[in-house]
Amino acid sequence: MPLTTGPIENTGNQPANATNVRVKILNRTGGVLSGVARVFRLNGTRQLISSANFIVGANASAFVTLSLQIGAAQYEVEIVPNQTGGLYSSYGRTASGVVITAQRVLHSELVQIL
To answer: Other CB atoms closer than 10 Å to residue 32's CB: what's the count?
Structure first.
């Protein structure tokens, strides 16, 4: 069951716009959880700009960091796990690692897509 953040605006943020997106993965299962996280540029035609595979052990957590291209004024994060049982969050970060609160998307805010 793929999940999406939906479109996220990346202009006019303080102290700066996001240059990367971090996806946090919490595996609440008794086995390994794997999948892929992708980020798409939405300026015009939807375009894949970064992706990363993840493997998280049982009852463990991890994160992946996806790069945003310069000029990605809008983006979308898509998380595609291999099974149910994971909890996810996503947030944009500046080049210096500052979290952009307005770009934080919690698990309860992610939308399942087909």
So the answer is: 13
Q: Are 60 and 19 in contact (CB under 8 A)?
A: no
Tokens of 72: 């990605």
How many angstroms separate the CA atoms of 44 and 54, rounded? Answer: 28
Q: What is the CA radius of gyration of the chain?
A: 14
Rounded CA separation 105/94 (Å):
16
Q: Give the pTM.
A: 0.94
Q: Of 89, 78, 72, give the one whose Cα is nearest residue 17.
A: 72
Q: At 66, is the pLDDT very low, low, confident or very high (cuts 50, 70, 90)?
A: very high
Rounded CA-CA distance 110/4 in Å is 6
User: Region 52-67: what's the mean pLDDT?
Assistant: 97
- Through-space distance between the first and last CA atoms of the chain, rounded to whole angstroms: 7
